[in-house]
Amino acid sequence: MRYYEFFCPVKLLAGLSALDHLAFELNQLNVKRPLIITGQQVKSLGLADMVIESLQISGMTVYEFNDVSMDSSFTIVKQVADYYREFSCDAMIAIGGGSVIDTAKASNILVSENSDNLYLFAGVNHLTRPLKPLIIIPTTSGTGSEVTNVAVIFDENSKTKVSFMSPYLLPNIALLDPRMTQSMPPKLTAMTAMDALTHAIESYIGLGKNPLSDAYATTAIRLISENLFDVINHPQNHEKRFALAQASTMAGIAFSNSMVGLVHSLGHATGAVCGVPHGQCMNIFLPYVLEYHRPMIGEKIGELLLPLAGIDVYTQTPSRKRADRMIEHIIDIKDILYQKTGLARTLSETGQVNESDFQKIADKAFDDGSMVYNVVESDINDILALLTYSYR
Amino acid sequence: MKKTQLSLFHTKYWTKNLLVMPNRWSFSQQLSYCKFMLNLIANGLVSASRHDLTIRQELQTYPIGFTIKMQILPNHASFVLQVNEKHQLMICQKSSADLTIFIKHLHLATQIFTFQESTAQAFANDRMTVDGDIAFAVRFVRILNQFQALILPKILAKRAIKRYPNILFRQKIATASLIYRDIVKATF
Asked: Which residue among A48, A132, A156, B184 sits deepest, i.e. has the most Cβ atoms within 10 Å of its Cβ?
């Protein structure tokens, strides 16, 4: 009998008008002066204003920092922390995608630990006490950061991505309101959904899988499969958008308890070396890495054909062919997304990666934390071969 | 039903008898065994960092003075290794380290050191926890893997690591004998 641990203490406010419950929840946490952290794009779409208005009606003094860029960086984190201290705020509300959420998590470390040196807390388990209240409102459906204990911040000086991992980085509340993901453009929708799909699949096939993470992972895969194309075709469909948002959160819960593997190692490294967006990397590498794993864990991969392709395809496919069919199905999804949104299927299609970058990417991927949890031990040559295969 | 007789030379004998035995070991037996194994690992790593090319290459990426600790919680047994100027490991007497791998319980340590599951699986099963930089931890896991591949018979090493590396039998024997010689020298 296997031992496993499962942990997700984040309170989830989800569904229609979820936003209207936020003021009450903040009162419960004794918050009076929250700081909203967001980016220019979210601000221009009026999403932050919806939150501010909702909180002001409830008599709160709300502050706003809306200059978080596409990549969370040490400089921005410091600016947010300074802003928080200047106005004596007592909680953070992150509204945005992965970079905004990670910026908020890292800024929360600085203000809670009363420090200006983020490096003191880098790595695993360097936080020893609960941080200030943090509320996360994702505006994309992919990262799952609203339920994970990780933050990754770019250090401009060393040009490296620095990871922070601690249970204290989990937010107090995650809020999923369909209005918040409504304005996501089709390509970003596709990219983030493929990120969530990868979280779920890697969670299911990884070393750290357990029955609970499997339940979340398979449900997330089914929800993504059933709703992704509908959302791409009908972006204003609230129900389908919400289903994707839930899938993303479920995949986040799954992988934060089972960890991810080689697809993420490759994605982190490619993102760091060439600046390719994370979701795009996941979309590119996922089927090739599954193909690489198929000889060792074909049966496990084949099991995922059921949530991904549905009962008809699953039962009509002989068990020995299910893994191949599963991989083909993902390649089909990639082709359709490419036609509909232009989401790159190979490294060459991104226009950001050269073959001369491969060695650097492979070296970084080899040292990535996700490698430990990958079910297969890969060496540098395997990683280089996968990069070459993903380039064509 | 006829009982299967297991020969001493049969793999199943060891799986059934030796590897399952730790569940019945007393506290003091477990403690003695884990202390012995930690001593073997610490001195073995010090020696391997001089004799094995793969481990030497991995250690090149660690800064000089970097310290690595392995501890069985709460404080049953531990060792601290430090990277010296030649990027080799040496045993040091510090109590804290830049990277610490904690094994959560003595019984879990016994399971790990009797090769009932791989180092990676032990991490995945939350038997161990890391305090420190993730990239250095990943490299240290690779060092441990290579070390186990060198000093253990292939049949046991395959249980302890995810993928048995390409090591020539002659090379394995030569390096392992140097490592064991150094362990004996350091211990007695």
From this structure: A48
Q: Which of B126, B138, B161 sits opposite A5 (nearest CB)?
A: B126
Q: B20 touching A, CB under 8 A?
A: no
CB-based burial label for B100 (10 Å; 0-12, 13-18, 19+): buried
Query: Confidence band (pLDDT; 50, 70, 90) for B13?
Result: low
Tokens of B79: 């060792």
B/e letters for A347-363, b = 16+ CB within 10 Å, e = fewer, are: bebbebbeeebbeebbe
CA neighbor of A60 nearest in space, from A100, A84, A22, A33? A33
Residue type, A170: L
Size of the A and B interface in Cβ pairs below 8 Å: 65
| pLDDT per position as a tens digit, A158-176 | 777 788 989 999 999 999 9
The three-class DSSP label of residue A232 is helix
Please, are residues B114 and B34 in contact by the beta-carbon 8 Å criterion? no
The span from the CA of A87 to the CA of A79, in Å, is: 13
Q: Scanning every residue of chain A, which has its alpha carbon at the shortest distance from the alpha carbon of B163? A: A377
Residue A8 has pLDDT above 80, yes or no: yes
pLDDT digits (tens, 9 = 90+) for A208-221: 999 999 999 999 99
Find the residue in B nearest to A3 (Cα): B125
Cross-strand partners of A165 = A124, A150
Is A129 exposed, middle or buried (CB count within 10 Å of its CB: 0-12, 13-18, 19+)?
exposed
* pTM for the full predicted model: 0.90
Query: Cα–Cα distance between A78 and A81 in angstroms, integer?
Result: 5
The C-alpha angle with vertex A278 and arms to A277 and A284, in degrees rounded to 5, equals 95
- Whether chain A has a CB inside 8 Å of the CB on B129: the answer is yes
Spatial separation of the C-alpha atoms in residues A210 and A372, rounded to whole Å: 16
CB-count exposure of residue B129 (10 Å: 0-12, 13-18, 19+): middle
Q: What is the pLDDT of residues B117-170, one digit of tens each?
A: 788 888 888 888 888 888 899 999 999 999 999 999 998 888 889 899 988 999
A126: nearest CA in chain B? B131
Q: What gap in Å lies between CA B44 and CA B40, rounded to an integer?
A: 6
The confidence score (pLDDT) of residue B3 equals: 47
What local confidence, expressed as pLDDT, does residue A50 receive?
Answer: 92
Test mutation, B162, B166, B167, chain A, max A CBs within 10 A: B162
CB under 8 Å to A269, separation ≥6 — which residues? A361, A362, A363, A364, A365, A368
Residue range A264-280: mean pLDDT, rounded: 93
